[in-house]
Design brief:
Elements (H helix, E strand, L loop, with lengths): L5 H9 L2 H17 L9 H17 L4 H12 L5 H21 L2 E4 L2 E4 L1
Antiparallel strand pairs: 1-2
Helix pairs in contact: 2-3, 2-5, 3-4, 3-5, 4-5
Length: 114
């Protein structure tokens, strides 16, 4: 039996269903404001994919290489660690902006939508 470290506890809080839903909603509002230039994907599909990549990134220890490998296994879509890093950086930027604007609340390492 292993005791969870403080980092493990923090990661579990990040993956709480309420937090994941809050992240998805923030990503959806960003995707609606910044539509796909190629018009191949809907804003909902973009938000869903980015939220899923964010979750896989956390589950793989926030390693872009491990995230890319796991993403390919899960979806069958080959992707690079650079593409993963770009998506995660955008997600982090959207979440920081949402916190700054007051769209999200921050309580003890957990973020919820207002």
């Amino acid at each position: 039996m292993t005791l969870p470290t403080s980092e493990m506890v923090k990661q579990r809080r990040e993956l709480h269903p309420d937090r994941v839903e809050a992240v998805r909603r923030c990503l959806l509002s960003h995707a609606l404001a910044h539509p796909d230039r190629s018009s191949q994907l809907t804003p909902e599909a973009i938000a869903y994919r980015r939220a899923a990549i964010w979750r896989v990134h956390i589950l793989t220890g926030k390693s872009p290489t491990a995230t890319a490998q796991t993403w390919q296994v899960l979806t069958g879509t080959p992707t690079t660690r650079q593409a993963i890093s770009k998506q995660v950086a955008l997600t982090d930027e959207v979440l920081r902006l949402a916190l700054k604007l007051g769209d999200l609340e921050h309580h003890a390492d957990t973020v919820y939508l207002r």
